Amino acid sequence: MNEQSSKLHGVMAEFETPEQLIEAAEKTRAAGFAKLDAYAPYPVEGLAEALGLKRTWVPQLTLLGGILGGCGGFGLQYFVSVISYPLNIGGRPLNSWPAFIPVTFETTVLGAAIFAVFGMLALNKLPQPYHPVFNVARFAARASSDRFFLCIEADGEKFDGAGARKFLEGLKPASVAEVLDE
Known about the structure:
The chain is an alpha+beta fold. The chain has two domains: 3-53 and 132-181, Alpha-Beta Plaits, CATH 3.30.70; 58-123, no CATH class. The protein has six helices and four strands; from the N terminus they run βαβααααβαβ. It has a four-stranded antiparallel beta sheet. Helix 3 packs antiparallel against helix 4 (97-123). The model has no long low-confidence stretch (mean pLDDT 93).
């Protein structure tokens, strides 16, 4: 692909240890770079704080799914037992809520699980069959095995690729590469 059809997605640095990655992320964020992303072969404690990531909406979505699932399960049982097909068996009340608890519980769990899974997928923009970072050969070969990567993403017209590259080289990484969105 020629250079005219390639767009700069960002600049990526490769580090050998998670400590170097966390230190680089903190310094990069302190230098004023707004859009950062880090890639590691396993979860790194403290990386989210170093990147300045905000809390996710997944717990609120899970709660909403649980409330909707529970209300839906109880409402369905109420509708069937009281409105649609009332049966007076042994003088019990039509709205016999203690009998509705098991199904209400199960629909609460089901609603919460569905909202948690699909909320997480939507917030993570998944599935994502293509991402520009895989255009960097070293990333594709080493990101899932033993290396740690920090990418400063281009955040508009004021992004300076040469300045970002120079800054990352000052952090003494194993390598620095441009990430092209082809």
